[in-house]
Amino acid sequence: MSQTAPFCELCATDEAVADCLVIDGHCHVDFWIGAYCQDRHIEGIIEVCDELGVDKLCINYGACPEMRVANDVVARGIRKYPNRVVGICYINYYEGGAEVQQAELKRCFDELGFMGIKVGNFHDIYPQTRGYFELEDPLQPTWEFAQERGASILCHGVVTYDIARRYPGANFIVAHGGGAPEGYLRVAELPNTYCDTASTGVQTGALELLCEKVGAERIVYGSDLPAFDLGHRLGVVMAAQISESDRELILGQNMQRLLNNVK
Ligand SMILES: [Zn+2]
To answer: What residues does the ion ligand 1 have nearby, CB within 5 Å?
Structure first.
């Protein structure tokens, strides 16, 4: 089913682009080197969301290596917009061992109301860097916490087949996986893996291929705001040659289901 023509017409109006539940499953806030930055502060971001019809934002700070500092910025957004901002706890495995990770996860989930986890990489600013495949042990407390709470983890390249298989109660969202289906398809046979649409490049037909090969119920809309314009990835999903029911799953229903799973 083609939505290209109606989508283009809609963009020329004042109407919200998507008339269904829209949850941005992968975005950030505040300072970001080289970011597109429509407005990197939460107040401005919410204004853009209102214009486009984006209902909720799953935010991790992501560009700060200090976990508490990063997560406190997101917590401010939750306090100001409790119905719009979903906190995603940023875990930096270079910052401390198991106890530090566990303490920050508990602080974010139990005290600040966070509902998801992001693991990422700041290899270049730490003296002892680790390769992706050496990360299983350092991040074990995080995988275990996610398993126990039924939380989803946004992963920048660090999830492996073995990790996803060992923690079936956790859900793993492969960041940017929607723009690189050839990579995502390798872990797609595991039902607790998802991919998002945030990407530095979206290949033509990538979403259609993923819907066909693994199903729309495993794809999550994400913008990577403020590194990229919030509307661009929304347009990628809106213009994809997929059914309306698949589009609604990708735009918001899948992420809502993942959030409902959190204990
Ligand atoms: Zn990102």
So the answer is: 224
